[in-house]
Amino acid sequence: MAGLFGLGSSADIEVVFAGEDLRKLIEVKVDKDKRAKFPLYFDGDSVAGKVLIRVRDGKKIEHQGIKIEFVGHIDLYHDRGTHQEFLSLSQELASPGDLRTSATFDFEFKSVEKQFESYIGINVRLRYFVRVTIARRLSDIVKERDIWVHSYRMPPDSNNSIKMEVGIEDCLHIEFEYNKSKYHLRDVIVGLINFLLVRIKIKHMELSIIRRETTGSAQNQYNESETVTKFEIMDGAPVRGETIPIRLFLSGFELTPTYRDVNKKFSTRYYLNLVLVDEENRRYFKQQEITIYRLRDDEQPEE
Fold this sequence. Notes:
Number of strands: 23
Order of helices and strands: EEEEEEEEEEEEEEEEEEEEEEE
Largest sheet: 7 strands, mixed
Distance between the termini: 42 Å
Strand content: over 45%
Shape: elongated
Structural class: mainly beta
Helix content: under 10%
């Protein structure tokens, strides 16, 4: 049940989605210290429900019409004036007239295409929401309520392992391998690190997952990176011929799928970052992009 939202002194508007109690709720971080839950929808799902308008204190509301819209848009935080709508559907709920008592209106947007996933990032937000507008002569009364959208993708046809080397001539030669290059959100990254030559004193080694968000166009592009997780895979000096296993469960982290050039506005990519630190605190690192995709909850990829 949606929370009631007080608007001005004349009316309260509430939006209730059909079958809302049966839908999964997705909890996401919407601000630095704030989390919220939204009902989950998928591409092709209809968005339907009821709009409840409660007139306060028996006052009459004169209006120029009541409508509901289903909107998908992208906000770029670094350009506050930029709100790009990529989806906009509208239905009239009531013709111009007066509201003297509380009223309930049904709405339905059938089999709506939702080509992108909902996303809240560092510099960008992609939203889907319904917006109810009571048009008035001086100031409209508006109520918005968000939903959350997930998209599923087919597992990749090919999924090659990643093999790379890190080397400093005559000092260090490391070979590392990850079992594949594309992972689903509940996957496990399995790998091996082989020390072929070690002539510098390694103090420790760590593996991190980096999320890199790119927003804007080439002339006005912003890149932001954040470390999703970082863990130490070795503490102490390795010796030649030593092999260190890696096993990292992705389900414990708040990851999204990889997004590439969403509506020509933003991309979100993931990288495995291997860092070695020697006794003089010099850092040696190797970064490799991985692809992350979403599977249905009841779906298991072929190994």
